[in-house]
Amino acid sequence: MTDYDLIIRNVRVVRPGTGEVPVADIGITGGTISRVGARLPAGQATEIFDGGGQLAFPGVVDAHQHWGIYNPLPSDAATESRACAQGGVTTSLNYMRTGQYYLNRGGSYAEVFPEVLAAAEGRSYVDYGFHLAPMQSSHIDEIPDLISRYGVTSFKIFMFYGGHGLHGRSARQQEFLMIPDGERYDLAHFEFVMRGVQRARQQFPQLAEAISLSLHCETAEIMTAYTKLAEAEGRLSGLAAYSASRPPHSEGLAVTIASYLAHETGLPNINLLHLSSAKAMEAAAAMARTFPEVDFRREVTIGHLLADVTTADGIGGKVNPPLRPRADVEALWQYLLDGEVDWVVSDHACCKEATKFGEDREDVFAAKSGFGGTEYLLPGLAGEARSRGLPLRRVAELTSWNPARRYGLHTKGDIADGYDADIALIDPETSWIADPASSESAQEYTPFRGMRIGSSVTATFLRGRRIYGEGKILGQPAGRYLHRPVTR
C-alpha cells in the first residue's frame, strides 16, 4: 500500500506536451509527486485537499526576476517571493550582477556571490536561483568555478550598458558599471564572455546542455541618438516617448549582432530576453534561419503581452525594453501562437514609488526602469488563453516546462511521477481587476492597475506544501536555493 503525505483531489491536470486535461488526483510523498490518477484511495493519505475541479498547472518557473535591484536583497527575497506564491510561481530565477544597484559593489564573484546567497537564505517562500553577468574580464575566468561550486549555469550580457544608462541617456557608465580602470563593457567583452561560456561547456560536457548565455538586446548608440530626438522634439510624452527613445530597430540590430557573435564563437545555447517588438521577433526568426547550429530561445514578458503604451497605468510602466504600441503587442501574440516564443516571464523588479518616480512624476525620462508583475504572470496568460486560442498545454510549456529544461531544473515543470510537487491551482472562470493594494509585492503601484485579469490562482503548493490559499500566504519561508543542474 502506498502512503501519501497529501492527495490533491479532483483537479483537471494540465501538462506540457499533451492536449488532454483529465480529471485526476495527485498523490504527493516526501515533496514529490508519486502518483497521478483517478480516485486515489483517501485512506492512504495523511491529508486531503479538494481541488474543486479547478485546473492544476505545474508551478511556474519565472525565469526572469530581479530581486535586490532597488531594495535590499533580504527584503526582496521575503516580500517578492510572497508575490510569486500569490501568482502560482514556485521557482524564481533572478538576474544578478556587480555594479550600481543590487549590492552596489564591484569585485570578484568569489567575494560577491556568497554575500548574495547569504542575503537570500531562509527568506524566500519559493525555490530560487541566480543568473550572473560577467561584467569585467576577471569574471569570465570565474565562470567554471561558478558552475562547479555554486551551480550557476546561466549567464547574461546587457548589450546597451556600455554606452547608455539603465534609465536613459548617461555619460557616467564607468561609474555605473564599477569595472576596473582601462576595461570596457563593449562588443569585444561580449565576444570574450561568449568564448568563456563555451569553454565552460567544453570543460563540463556532462553539464553542457544546462549552460547558456542570455542577452538583453538593445543598441546603445541607437538609443542615445533617439533619446535626444525624442526629448528635443517633445512631440510624444509618457510611455510613447520612452518607446520612441528606444526604437524597435535597436532591438533588431542587437539581436543580429549577438547572433553573429554566437556563430563566431561557436556558442550554441543563446537566450534572447524580453523581446518586445515585431522587429525584434523578426530579427530573431531571421537569425535562427541563418545560423541553424545555434539553439536560440526567445523570451517574452507578460507585461509586453498584456499592456501597451496607452493601456498601462501611467509611467509606472517604464521598463527596458519599453512597452510598445498595440501593433507590437499583437505581433508578439501572433509569434507566440505560431510557436515562435519559448517562455513567458515577468521580469519582476520591485521598485517602490519613492524610488520609481522623479520629482516630476510625469517625466518618463526621470523615472526608474522596471516594475513588478510576477503575481500576474500565470493568471494573466491563462486568462488570455481562451480568447486567444492558446492551448492550456502551451501555457504550461511557456510558464514552466520550457524554462525548467533550459535552465537545468529537471525536477520542475510537469505534474508527473518523480517531479517536485510544485502545483498552482487556477480558477479559469473567475476574473479580477488588478489593484496594487491586493498584491503581496512591496511595490505600491502597478502598470496593470485597472486591467481585468482573466483567471485566478486559488492555491500554490511548493514541494507538496501549500504556501498560498484562501487569498493569503501560508506558513513560513521554505524556499531552497537551486544548485543547478537539478536532476531527478
Distance between the termini: 23 Å
Tell me the total number of β-strands: 19
CATH class division of the largest domain? Alpha Beta
- Radius of gyration, taken over Cα atoms and rounded to an integer in Å: 21 Å
Specify the CATH homologous superfamily of the largest domain.
Answer: Metal-dependent hydrolases
Binned, the helix content reads 25-40%
Into how many domains do the coordinates divide?
Answer: 2
The CATH architecture of the largest domain would be Alpha-Beta Barrel
Biggest sheet record: 9 strands, mixed
Return the CATH topology of the largest domain. TIM Barrel
Percentage beta strand: 15-25%
Give the CA-based shape.
globular
Number of distinct helices: 14
Average pLDDT metric: 96
Structural class: alpha/beta
| Uncertain ranges | none
How would you sum up this structure, described in words?
With 488 residues, this protein is α/β, with parallel strands linked by helices. The chain has two domains: 4-50, no CATH class; 59-409 and 429-454, TIM Barrel, CATH 3.20.20. 34% of the residues lie in helices and 20% in strands. The chain is built from 14 helices and 19 strands. It has helices at 73-86, 109-120, 137-150, 173-177, 187-203, 220-233, 238-245, 248-265, 278-290, 302-306, 326-337, 353-356, 374-388, 392-406, and strands at residues 4-13, 23-29, 32-37, 45-50, 55-58, 60-65, 89-96, 127-132, 154-158, 212-216, 269-272, 295-301, 343-345, 423-427, 432-433, 452-453, 456-462, 465-469, 472-473. Strands 1, 2, 3, 4, 5, 14, 17, 18 and 19 form a nine-stranded mixed beta sheet that branches. Helix 3 packs parallel to helix 5 and helix 6 packs across helix 7. The longest helix has 18 residues, at 248-265. The radius of gyration is 21 Å and the shape is globular. The two termini are 23 Å apart. The mean pLDDT is 96.
